[in-house]
Structures are given as structure tokens and as C-alpha cells.
Amino acid sequence: MSIGHTLLGLLESGPRHGYDLKRAFDEHFGQDRPLHYGQVYSTMSRLLKNGLVEVDGIEAGAGPERKRYAITDAGVTDVAQWLHRPEKPEPYLQSTLYTKVVLALLTGRDAAELLDTQRTEHLRLMRGLTERKRKGDLADQLICDHALFHLEADLRWLELTAARLDKLAQAVNA
Amino acid sequence: MTPEGSILSGEGLHKHYGRTPALDGADFSIHPGEVVAVLGPSGSGKSTLLHCLAGIVRPDSGSVRYDGRELTTLPDAERSALRRRDFGFVFQFGQLVPELTCLENVALPLRLNGAKRKAAEATAREWLARLEVDDVHGKRPGEISGGQGQRVAVARALAGHPRVLFADEPTGALDSLNGERVMTLLADAARDTHAAVVLVTHESRVAAYSDREVTVRDGRVKEPLAGL
């Protein structure tokens, strides 16, 4: 995820302090990985330097000064371009699992057992996500669904590979 | 796997259809209130396992024990009575009686077990509401959607408070959203009533509603490796 673009996008609705930005980020996107304050301030310095945000005001208090940031026109253009640029689909061509299966076959180990073990691990994670979905709000459901669909795809691959293990063994040992 | 404390177990189950082996020494057990997913590729024997455990099909050899009783040697009439009284069933298609309304469909197993019509229909109404289809009670199965029909079928399967629910690809004919809702409602209702659920599925997302999974391969049941 591009934290810079996300923070810029959050600034489009109006100027915010660094603390508000972190709170908004965590609320929408940080369920599993909340943002560190350090990340917010280092990202804002970079955006300032690049002219994508500006300091809208400074509040002096008992602690350190609190800067309020606002997005610039260049920042709005940058967010719009980022939003409209499609993400590169993950090609999934370098699969550790595939490597493990082939190595198991090459070394005479039980590749079927390896696939079964992986299925159990995937299903364990899917159970946790399903439970979280059951108790969560719509945002939680969508986040979990994204993960569940990817895990499901992995499991289909595991099934297909399990069904083709004999052929694969012949091919790699030929 | 120890069948100790289990409500239903199968041991050393063999079943052939002609020369084709469907089960080849399958073992299985389930505890009250547990949801167990039975996974496996097509033709692996998972539906045959369910049919043997439910007393629908008699295995060629092996034992099926339900609540301390051997099912394989029970006379047909007694097995049918037990199935009606203690088991519930949800399949992929075609389980509702087309001539009856949805309410009558849900009330049917209760009526067959001796409940008076009013009492049976009151219970049926409660289950239709629980499955979020209380608006279809006067309609016939042909007048409702597939998702609604499957919810009615789940209501019918659970209305008699079965001790074991057998579900064979219960969401196989549904889209993702309907399938998920049916699974959530089914799993919640089964856990509330402490019913054991044998859930046959080839969909991992459906299996994720279970407490644990077993895999059927070449007619044998494989448990996840210990410690995982």
C-alpha cells in the first residue's frame, strides 16, 4: 500500500493534524497494522518537500508544536492519477509452495503430505477470518473476503497439484 | 482419532458400487455440537461416507455407531425412524416437497414425528424467521429463489432439533452471498442447538465454517497431522 497516497487522499476532505491523519488511517485501513507516528511524520515531510502538501497552520501547546497539513493542487492531481492507475496484478509465478513440492519429489519425500499440511494451515487461517467476518462490520467483511478469496485460490491449486502429483513426479524425475 | 465421547462414528467402512470401491476402510467420528467438514475431490467417496453414517446406505463391512447403537445391523424400519427422529438433512437440490407450502415443508418432519399441526406450524414459523425467510411461508418451493429454498431446507432440517445434521454441498447451487448467509445461519443454529454437523463440501470457504476438517481420498479418511 502506498502510505503517501493514502494520507494524501485522506487530506482531500480537509486539513488535518498528523495525529488526526494517523487516526483516520488506522480506522479505515490499519486494522491489522496501525501506522506508527514516525511513519506519519516522515511521510508528511516527504510530501511537503515534493510540494504535494503544505502547512496550513501551527498550534503551539504545552508539548511540541502541532502542524496542520493541507493538500495542494499538485497533491490532488497526484492522488487522482494514483487512483486511476490500475494496480499491477500479482503474477504468482514464483511460488515457494511449487518449489517445495518439486524438491520433495526430487528428494523422494512425501509431497502429498506436504500439500495436506499446507491445506490444514490455510484452512486454519480461513477459519479465523470467517469468524472475524461473522463478528465484524462491513469493512471487516470486505477485508476478510479479499484474503479468503486468495486463500481459496491457493487451496484450489493445492487440490489440483495433489491430483497431478504422479505426473509431476514423472516429469521432474525424467 | 478416538471416538470416545462421540455421538456418531464409523469404523473400517467399506462400500463398493459394482466393482468400483467408494469407501476403502474409512474411519470417522464426530462429537455433539461439533461441525466437521468432509473434504475431498469428486469421486473420493465423501458422499458415500455421509450416506453410510446417516444410515441411508448400508456399508459392505465396518461399523457405524450412533449414540451407542450399531446402525448397520438395525432393521430398515428402525433405521428410518431413527433418521426421522434424530437426524436432519440438507442437500444441494430438490429436497422440498413441491406441492406443499414452505411452512408445510418445514412442519412436515415434526408432523411425521407426531406433533399436532398447530404446534408443528408454530415451530416451523419460528425456524423460518430464524433463517430470515418468514415472508415465504405461504409460497410453494417453485415460487421462491434458490437461496430462499435452501434456507427453508435448513429450517426444515433443524426444526426437529436433530442431534446430527448431515449437509451435502448445502451451498453448491447458491451464489457467494447467499451461500455465505446460509452457512452462517446453519452453523449458528446448529451450535445453538448443540447439533453435530457432518458437512460435505468441496468448497474451502464453506469448510472454513467448521471446527475441523477431514479429507477423503480414495475411499479413506485422512485427518490433519497431529500438532498442526
Automatic annotation (TrEMBL), chain A:
Transmembrane segments: none
Sequence ranges assigned to domain Transcription regulator PadR N-terminal in this UniProt record: 7-78
Cleavable signal peptide: none
Protein name stated in the entry: PadR family transcriptional regulator
Organism, as annotated: Streptomyces olivaceiscleroticus
